[in-house]
Here is the input.
Amino acid sequence: METIYLDHAATTPVAPEVIEAMLPYFTEHFGNPNGIYSVSRRAKQALEESRQRVAEFFHCKVTEVVFTGGGSESDNMAIKGVALAQQGKGRHLITTQIEHHAVLHACQALGKQGYEVTYLPVDATGLVTPEQVREAIRDDTILVSVMYANNEVGTVEPIAEIGAVCREEGVLFHTDAVQAVGQVDCQVEALNVDLLSCSAHKLYGPKGVGATYVRRGTKLLPLIDGGGQERNRRSGTENVAGIVGMATALDLAEQHQAAGETVRIQQLRDRLIEGIGERVPQVRLNGHPTKRLPNNVNFCIQYIEGEGVLLGLDMSGICASSGSACTSGSLDPSHVLLAMGIPHERAHGSLRLSLGVHSTEAQVDTVLEVLPKVVERLRQLSPLYDPKTQTATKLAEAFRQRAESGEFEHAGDHDHDLEDAEG
Ligand SMILES: *Cc1c(COP(=O)(O)O)cnc(C)c1O
Here is the structure.
């Protein structure tokens, strides 16, 4: 059975070209780039050439690229780094309710350290507006952080416009562009950003390596102190092979975009969205209909649990996700769907399919054949669904009312307590 991998928003396979480019830096060019002998000089040269290629990708200066240990670290670096460096100016930050946990939890950690954070709500499609940001900015605001594209529902935020507002107001602006890089334009000047996070493993590069764009003159305190690498902004012997891999992955992304790959993937996305809408009754597309990542499909499938759908799809070799990968396994519905105003009981039944460069029309058609059967089977078993009327049963109705009264939110809090207790 062929594996149909449709979880590219969680991670991607490393491209063969990337592996090939990385290999020499594990073997003959293994040197520490900070040494002065020739093995080291080769590593140093690869490091600086990679930095040049990354800078070209983002249209920034080489001195503005800081290599990190991935997207989560880049997010933490930007948020905590700015907060710590600028606390003399103020202790207020603005972000949104739908950020990745790397941003949300970094902000919550600051919240416990005496910072104040405004979590902006989003509309039903997941959009936040520049006006909302403008209204939330105060005299003591030091940073605004809004993700470029959401990892669950694919909504693409108006980053350039929000950045323009921040410039006008004299507030630093960070964007988590982990999902956007390689899929939508990421030239930092046009985006009006001061900081941007990127991760290699979401674009056919290796895991555990990322980069932060830090605009010239932006003060931030390092999270990791040590030997002073990365111009004192991130210490630690550089992950040379990983960095070479990331630079190669960005080159490939550029080539793919130039070759029309994004358009091809978007057509597959639309085929999936239309097909699911036609073949599966009682589903609703999550996210924005047009301002959305070319590879993202996210549906709420009523009356069933997302986990059940995933297991059903897995039996046919289809890899998909429900909510975000980091939180699946917990019973909490997605914070993104809840922020978009989707009721608790429906947020449990969400399905995310995220396409990639290896996705084909035949794979999409297999999904369109398998998914309706999986959903139908689960609904036959679901006490929440009446197959005769194709609507909710009385039990489902009672459930909905209990959810509306906030009963399950309480249950969710309890789960968190347990998780914390288990460490
Ligand atoms: C995956 C992801 C991250 C985390 O990146 P890692 O490299 O896995 O740490 C952060 N933000 C978004 C939007 C992501 O999709």
Q: What stands out?
A: The first helix runs from residue 16 to 22. Residues 324-329, 410-423 have pLDDT under 50 and may be disordered. The longest strand covers residues 296-301. The chain has 15 helices and 14 strands.
